[in-house]
Amino acid sequence: MKLKIMSLCTAGVILVFSLSACSGGNLQAEEDVGIKVDAAYDQVMESQNNATALCASVYANDDNSLVQIVGMSSDASYYEPFCIELTKDSQGEYSGKMVERFNGSLKEKADLQPAIGTQSNRDFFLKYANILYAALQESLYDPESAQYDYFRTYISTDEIVVVTNLNSKNRLGGYAGKTTYVITIEKDSDDINIMSNNKDDDFYSAKADDYVDAYSTAKSLIPPLAIDWDISELG
């Protein structure tokens, strides 16, 4: 695209200057960065026995000199979270390594997401969030009355997990009080398990609080793989 700038000189002659819009240059620069990020990302994944990502999201600082790709790979029997950090050198080339923690100062970069050829974490989890939300709603006596404080998905080594806190009406028509529920779906399985930490609830399990503690740990380690959902996004 070109921009035309018109200038009226003292002789009354209109001069027209044609300038290339910088947006085209920016687009090319973004494509170049994406290619380099993808190449460095692939190199690190190949070093991990050619691991294949089920999902991954790209995060970076403002000038893309520091990039982290956070996602989840899958083996025959378990899920494996990963966090790859890429740094750009003075020549504009990237090198990478596996790291243990996500850099919370980085921002998600939707423009770099297509470069790695993998669906984002949020897109991947949406399917399971909907499945588990539907299972919980079906288990409630009055699902229309459900009031959620939060609804969060994360992964363990072999499960997709939801931790949620809600209040809903019981058979007497009154609200039963807030209860924490944990809903899991095992890897490569349709088996859904519902637990609660309320001893008066039909789904009570002493393990529920263990999952809540595990969620807290998972969120501190790799936040992009512990996703908070608005209930309006589900169903």
Write the layout of secondary structure elements.
Blueprint: E1 2-8, E2 14-20, H1 22-47, E3 53-60, E4 66-74, E5 79-88, E6 94-98, E7 107-108, H2 121-139, E8 142-155, E9 159-169, E10 179-186, E11 192-196, H3 208-221, E12 227-228
Antiparallel strand pairs: 1-2, 3-4, 3-7, 4-5, 5-6, 8-9, 8-12, 9-10, 10-11
Q: How would you describe what is shown here?
A:
The protein has 235 residues and is α+β, with helices and mostly antiparallel strands. The protein has helices at residues 22-47, 121-139, 208-221; strands at 2-8, 14-20, 53-60, 66-74, 79-88, 94-98, 107-108, 142-155, 159-169, 179-186, 192-196, 227-228. The strands form three sheets. Strands 6-5-4-3-7 form a five-stranded antiparallel sheet. Strands 11-10-9-8-12 form a five-stranded antiparallel sheet. Strands 1-2 form a two-stranded antiparallel sheet. A hairpin with a 5-residue loop joins strand 5 and strand 6. The protein is elongated. 27% of the residues are buried.
